[in-house]
UniProtKB/TrEMBL annotation:
Active site: 450 (nucleophile)
Gene Ontology biological process: methylation
UniProt GO MF annotations: methyltransferase activity
Protein's UniProt keywords contain Methyltransferase: yes
Origin superkingdom: Bacteria
UniProt keyword annotations, A-Z: Methyltransferase, RNA-binding, S-adenosyl-L-methionine, Transferase
InterPro entries, alphabetized: MeTrfase_RsmB-F_NOP2_cat (IPR049560), MeTrfase_RsmB-F_NOP2_dom (IPR001678), NusB-like_sf (IPR035926), NusB_RsmB_TIM44 (IPR006027), RCMT (IPR023267), RsmB-like_ferredoxin (IPR054728), SAM-dependent_MTases_sf (IPR029063)
Record-stated family: Belongs to the class I-like SAM-binding methyltransferase superfamily. RsmB/NOP family.
Binding-site residues, S-adenosyl-L-methionine: 289-295, 335, 373, 397
Pfam families from the UniProt entry: Methyltr_RsmB-F, NusB, RsmF-B_ferredox
Protein name according to UniProt: rRNA methyltransferase
Native source organism of the sequence: Psychrobacter coccoides
Length: 513
C-alpha cells in the first residue's frame, strides 16, 4: 500500500531542505512524513546527512517522537492556552517533549536546542511559546510522562477499530504498539542450523535466544500435519554488519511471525504431493506480492533443503523411470513495483539462491520474477504444461494497512487514514478473485497480512468463502503455539516486548471437483 498523508488544516510555510542542526533535520524529516513521505524513504537521507557521532541520537529522536506522536500531540493540546495550528511549531514542540519525557536529555540542552531549532526553521516568533511549554514540562517530567503514557498513541479512528476488534487485548495491544520491536533472525537452513548460528553469536558476544513456533493444520478428520519454525531473538538489536556471516547469506533479519509463512505453505505442498501420490513433470508454485522477498527467500531455502523429499512419492519398481522425470519446481514471484523487485534480486544474490531467469538451477528450481499487477495478472502457459493447468500452491502476502508492524514503522500511525482500510479490503478481494481461478483443484492458498484489523483478515476470508463455493478453510489447530484462533485462520498480535509483529494467517484449499 502506498502511504497517504493525514488530512490537516495546517500547511507548511516553505519547502524545507535537509541541513541545519541535528534537531532541525529531525524536524524536517517529520514534516516530510506529514506531507506523505514514508519513514523508509526519508530515514537514510537523514542519517546520511549527519556526522557519525550524531546518527544514533537522530535515529532515537525520530523514532521515539513517531512512536509517541499522537500521545504527545494530545499532551501538547492540553498544555497550550490556545490551539497551535502551525505544523512546524507543533512538530518542533513534539520533538522537544520527546527529549524531555522519553530520551532523558538534560533539560537545558533539550529546551535550548529545540528553541534554537525553531529559529533555524524561521519560526523565531514561536520561540517564547516553545520555551514556556517545555520549561513547564521540565519542572515535573514524571507527571507529564504518566499523562502521556496513560492512553494509546494512535489516531482515534484506529484506536476505536482496535477496541472493536480486540476488546480483551486492547490495552496491552495499544501500549505494545508504542514500544520498539525486538530483532529476530532467520538462519538459512540450506547452509547452517539454528544451533550452529546461535553458537556463532555467542562467540561474537551477541546474546540471543532460540525460539520454536509449532504449527499444525487439520487436513482431514484422520490426519493433521505439523511443522516447527525455529528462529533467534537478539537480546539487543544490532547492525547487520556485526552479525557473523551475514554477507555470505547464512542469516537474514526477519520478524518471528513472518517466518511462519514459508513453513506453512511448504507443509501444505508436502501434503498435496502425498495425496496426489505422484506429481507431474513440474510443480508450479506462486508467491504473489513477493517484494521485498523475505518470505520468498525463506521458501526457496526450504525448497532447496526439501527438494529430494518433495518428490519422494510411493511408486512401484516399474515406475522408477517416471519418477526420474519429476525434476523441476517452477516458482513464479510477482510484484507490481519495479524498485521493490530490485530488492528481491539483491536479497537472493546475498543468500546465493536461484536468480530469476526461469531456468532450473542445479537443484531443479526455476524462479521467474514478474513485475505485474496481481489484480489482473494471468499465468502464461507453455506447451509442456500438464493438462491440469494452474498452480499447486499459492502464497499470497497480501497488501494491507500494515497496522501490525507499527512498532517497526511508526510513521504508519501518521500516514494511514480510515479510508485506506476500505480501499485495501477492496484491493485484497480483487487479488484473491484473480488468483483463485489459477489454483489447481486440490491446491492450497496461504493468505498472509501484517495487519491487525479483522476487516482485512478473518472477515476478508469469510467474505471470500461466501463468494467461492469451491474454497474450504483449513484449520490451524490449537496445537499452534502462536496467535489467536479466529473463525478462519489465526491472528498474531504485537503485545509484549518479546513477541513478533502483528500477522494474520489463513490456509484455504480448492475443492477437488
Amino acid at each position: 500500500m502506498k502511504h497517504h498523508a493525514t488530512a490537516s488544516n495546517t500547511k507548511l510555510s516553505s519547502n524545507l531542505k535537509m541541513n541545519g542542526s541535528v534537531r532541525v533535520r529531525v524536524i524536517r524529516t517529520l514534516l516530510a512524513i506529514q506531507q506523505g513521505k514514508s519513514l523508509a524513504t526519508v530515514l537514510d537521507p537523514l542519517l546520511n546527512s549527519l556526522h557519525e557521532g550524531d546518527k544514533g541520537f537522530a535515529h532515537a529522536l525520530l523514532l521515539t517522537t513517531l512512536r509517541h506522536w499522537h500521545a504527545l500531540a494530545r499532551l501538547l493540546d492540553s498544555l497550550a492556552d490556545k490551539p497551535i495550528d502551525e505544523l512546524e511549531v507543533r512538530t518542533t514542540l513534539q520533538v522537544g517533549l520527546a527529549q524531555l519525557l522519553y530520551l532523558e536529555v538534560a533539560d537545558h540542552a533539550a529546551i535550548h536546542e529545540t528553541v534554537e531549532a525553531a529559529k533555524e526553521i524561521e519560526f523565531a516568533r514561536a520561540a517564547g511559546l516553545i520555551n514556556a511549554i517545555l520549561r513547564k514540562v521540565a519542572k515535573n517530567p514524571n507527571k507529564f510522562r504518566k499523562k502521556c503514557d496513560k492512553n494509546h498513541s494512535l489516531p482515534n479512528w484506529l484506536a476505536y477499530q482496535l477496541k472493536q476488534d480486540w476488546s480483551e487485548q486492547y490495552t496491552a495491544l495499544t501500549q505494545g504498539l508504542r514500544q520498539p520491536a525486538p530483532m529476530f533472525l532467520r538462519v538459512n537452513t540450506a547452509v547452517s542450523s539454528v544451533s550452529a548460528y546461535h553458537q556463532l553469536l555467542t562467540e561474537a558476544d551477541i546474546s540471543s535466544e532460540k525460539i520454536a513456533l509449532s504449527s499444525e493444520i487439520q487436513l482431514s478428520k484422520q490426519h493433521n500435519a505439523t511443522t516447527t519454525t525455529q528462529a533467534l531473538r537478539l537480546e539487543q538489536s544490532t547492525s547487520v554488519s556485526f552479525l557473523p556471516e551475514f554477507s555470505s547469506g547464512v542469516v537474514s533479519v526477519q520478524d518471528l511471525h513472518a517466518q511462519l509463512a514459508a513453513p506453512l505453505i511448504q507443509l501444505a505442498l508436502n501434503h498435496k504431493l502425498k495425496i496426489d501420490n505422484g506429481v507431474d513433470n513440474q510443480l508450479h508454485l506462486l508467491d504473489a506480492c513477493a517484494a521485498p522477498g523475505g518470505k520468498l527467500a525463506h521458501w526457496l531455502e526450504l525448497l532447496t533443503t526439501d527438494k529430494s523429499s518433495l518428490f519422494h512419492v510411493k511408486q512401484s519398481a516399474a515406475d522408477q523411470q517416471a519418477k526420474a522425470e519429476v525434476s523441476t519446481i517452477k516458482l513464479t514471484a510477482i510484484d507490481n513495483e519495479a524498485q521493490r523487485i530490485t530488492r528481491i534480486h539483491e536479497n537472493l544474490q546475498r543468500l546465493d539462491l536461484p536468480l530469476a531467469d526461469d531456468q532450473a538451477d542445479n537443484k531443479g528450481i526455476a524462479l521467474n520474477i514478474v513485475c505485474d499487477d496481481a489484480t489482473t495478472w494471468q499465468r502464461s502457459q507453455s506447451k509442456t504444461d500438464s493438462a491440469q493447468n494452474g498452480f499447486d500452491v499459492i502464497l499470497l502476502d497480501s497488501p494491507c494497512t500494515a497496522t501490525g508492524v507499527i512498532r517497526r514503522h511508526p510513521d504508519i500511525g501518521i500516514l494511514r487514514t480510515e479510508a485506506d482500510v476500505e480501499q485495501t479490503v477492496q484491493l485484497q478481494a480483487q487479488i484473491l478473485d484473480n488468483l483463485w481461478p489459477q489454483l489447481k483443484a486440490g491446491g492450497y492458498l496461504l493468505y498472509v497480512t501484517c495487519s491487525i484489523l479483522k476487516q482485512e483478515n478473518s472477515l476478508q476470508m469469510q467474505d471470500f468463502i461466501t463468494r467461492h463455493n469451491d474454497a474450504t478453510a483449513i484449520e490451524l489447530t490449537e496445537a499452534c503455539n502462536w496467535g489467536i484462533a479466529q473463525q478462519i485462520g489465526r491472528q498474531c498480535l504485537p503485545i509484549d516486548s518479546e513477541s513478533g509483529d502483528g500477522f494474520y494467517y489463513a490456509l484455504l484449499q480448492k475443492t477437488v471437483e
